[in-house]
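Attaching the record inline, Q. Sequence:
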Amino acid sequence: MKTILKFLFILSLFFTSCDEKDTDPVKIIPISTEYGDFNVWTKRVGNNPSKKVLLLHGGPGANHQYFKGFESYFPGEEIEYYYYDQLGSTLSDNPQIDDLWTIKHYVEEVEQVRKALGLNKDNFILLGHSWGGILGIEYALKYQQNLKALIVSNMVPSVPDYNDYAKNVLALQLDPEILKEIRSYEAVEDYTNETYLKLIHDNYYPEHVLRIPAEDWPEDVSNAFAEINFPIYLKMQGPSEFGIVGNASLKDWDVTKELNKISVPFLSIGAQHDTMDPKQMEWMANEVQNGSYLHCPNGSHMAMWDDSENYFNGLISYIKSL
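Structure, as predicted:
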């Protein structure tokens, strides 16, 4: 009898251990690169076998924290989703290898994350915001056979067009004296000067990045900005959201002529006060084979925060329609 009881006790521990392992929402995923093996952090929220959304944060070099607003919307709609810090971001490894920071690397990283999470064409919805939108498009151009749908939030398909809009449309809405001072730093490419950065943060960000007074920014957004991996961000994006002046991997990126290759269901989300042209984000939805557009009339680049009602009502409705 004691032997049977001992066996049952050991068996119960085994199943308890398996349950804990299976239900653990945090998963550290090994990533293989030509420069070595590293780990990235992911966390699952919710459970839905047919709707699994992998969130690609912006930056490059930001983190998952500014997506935490999704917790007020997705779980109640039974949408499973995954936080994910890309390599170099807060909870993932940060190898000091400059040659890693390319679009090509991150596309292969996303594919390895997909496999590790068991996502496939029947359930895998990829949502990329800002830089994450670039990454999502590039992933779809290579691996769309693995996708159920692609959602590109607050990103246009051409960085040269993004820069042109920032320079010739949004910049001209600034106070002329402020703009003149900003241009003086740009003329000598003094992009990391503290005064230059403060001018942009104080005058450009409140209009086009997050239309909430800085002192009222949600903690999750402030933390994401505070913890950004600035060397990666500087190398790829440049010093700020006032256009992309980083490496050629990003500043010359343009897939306007390749959008018609994307055949999976596609949602583009744009905002009226964004750092990039909402009309081009709408145009993008018409260039892919199966596109839709969601417009956030009150939002900026972080429309999930400053126009959350329109953003999430439209987003959830789209996901449920798949």
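The chain is about 40% helix and 15% strand. The two ends are 55 Å apart (CA to CA).

More tomorrow.
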